[in-house]
Amino acid sequence: MTDSNRLRMTLVKESTLGATPDTPRMRTMRVTGEGLQYTPNFVNSNEIRSDRMLSDPIKVNEQNSGPINFELSYPVSDSPLSSLLESTMFNSWANTPAFDNDGTADSVVTDAGTTTDTYVVAANGDDAKAGHLVRATGFTNAANNQVFKVVSATGTTIVGSSLSLTAETAPPATARLKVVGFQGASADISAAADGLTSSSLDFTTLGLAVGQWIKIGGSAAGDKFATAACNGWARITAIATNALTLDNLPSGWTTDAGTGKTVKVWFGDQLKNGVSRISHTIERGFMGQAVPTYIIQRGMVVGQATLNFTTEQVISGTFTMNGLTGEQTTSALDASPDAETSNPIMSANVNVGRIAESGVAVTSPNFVRSAQLSFNNNLRMITAVGNVGAVDIGVGEFAVDVTLETYFGSNALLAKLLAGTVGNINLRTAKNSQAVILALPRLTFTGGAPSAGSKNTDVMLNLTGSVSKDTLTAASAIINRLEYFEA
Questions:
Q1: Phi, psi for residue 112 in degrees, rounded to 5
Q2: What is the DSSP track for 253-304?
Q3: 265-280 tens-digit pLDDT
Q4: Strand runs (DSSP E) across 80-160, as ranges?
Q5: Bridge partners for 326 per DSSP
Q6: The pLDDT of residue 2 is above 90
Q7: Where do the H-state alpha helices sit in 73-187?
Q8: Residue 1: which pLDDT band, with cuts at 50, 70 and 90?
Q9: How many CB atoms lie within 10 A of CB 451?
Q10: Measured between alpha carbons, how far is 319 from 295 in angstroms, rounded to an integer?
């Protein structure tokens, strides 16, 4: 006997569709349930028999498909959740520079503090630019775990100022440096009517992108604008040497010279929909058996995905997979897979900071009761004579649909539906100083009507919407993740 609580699901990204890497590094996925199927397909013979009986069923192929259910947590880089989001979007994350020992001590980050204010890395240290904010974590000495502003960098050094580091010549396997934002000198960054300006900091050197979300302001009074309305979340619409043009500005945004302030601005990684098929080998281990059975499915690509935001519920989702081939065995691909991530699960009421439509938060009187985002890659399995399983996966258009259930407090959203007004929508969720922003930059409501279904109930407006290509960002869907920010 075995039971569902002993399931271990692991995966690894493939370089070639359907080919598991040699000696794969498997990573454990956090799931709430799954319905993956590695099953044979049989048909019955059409022979006519005088005894009215059937001949043996005939195996004609095998099928690999099914759903994986999950709850939303911060999608740590290279984790299964992060990788399956890449498969959904047919693209890879555009990550800010990171230097990670990733399980091997003294490998990528090789020193901290032996030279004053300096972290030493194996290569590409100059990807960190002057003005970047870098977060150092996982070092043995507590003094070396901090957020600091880069003063200078070379291929092998990242240098700050007045960091008070403790010499650490062989940083542990957990040591990590990650660019998480940027900071201006005193009074260098100002709030303008349409975004941020600088006197000396060159915004074009920082790796920012149009359509990217930023969080303005640090936790200390000296690291944020004196005007409270100028601290908060916004989206980049244009990048110039000394100007960041923004929309989705905080309510009440105004100008602020930033006098005497060293303003911090936080940003992170971005994932846009693309055209690069990303596949995985997925292994399910049924660990409750005396000799565990491992079911391995190769060439697994996300065909469809959903994310559900419902009041008083955990944010949940499903990846529906399609793949090429499979097998069952009693030997695991990796006897010691990476443990699952431990970032906390996010919920719709407590952790969703804002749902906005066309740059304005959807609040009273049309509060959102639920929102669902559905992604469809329109995959088709290609089979061929002489081959068991599929030989390839055909790819159709990338379609995104939205369902939005709002209270019918006014006709504002209904009017947009009836007029065919083109807008956009974004959902921001944050927990433990980490954030995920899901943005659909061009959305048209295509259906919905208010209805008083029965007495003693709220009248709801259930809207459906369809996403199209946005010319500003050249995308239909964008996911931003911030590994760290200060409130």
A1: -140, 125
A2: ---B--TT---EEE--EEEE--S----EEEEEEETTSSS-EEEEEEEEEEEE
A3: 999 999 999 999 999 9
A4: 98-100, 109-112, 118-121, 132-137, 147-149, 152-153, 157-159
A5: 297
A6: no
A7: 80-89
A8: confident
A9: 12
A10: 18
